[in-house]
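Have a close read of the entry that follows and walk me through the local backbone shapes. See right below:
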Amino acid sequence: MPKRFRLTRRIPVAMTEDGYRRLRKFAAEAGLDEGEALSFLFEHFDSVTNKENLTARLRLFNSELDARKR
């Protein structure tokens, strides 16, 4: 029997405009709303990310973060 899909947590999230646009695009392409899309991505995080690419992208993002905050 499949798990019932319930959105039980509501969290305030701060996102960049680029990140939010990409989330909305992904959600629309998948036929989901933004909350459902985030739930899907985090429930299946290991299977939808490439660990090596993720590590490299995260390192790059962190190196640019201070400059982007100004």
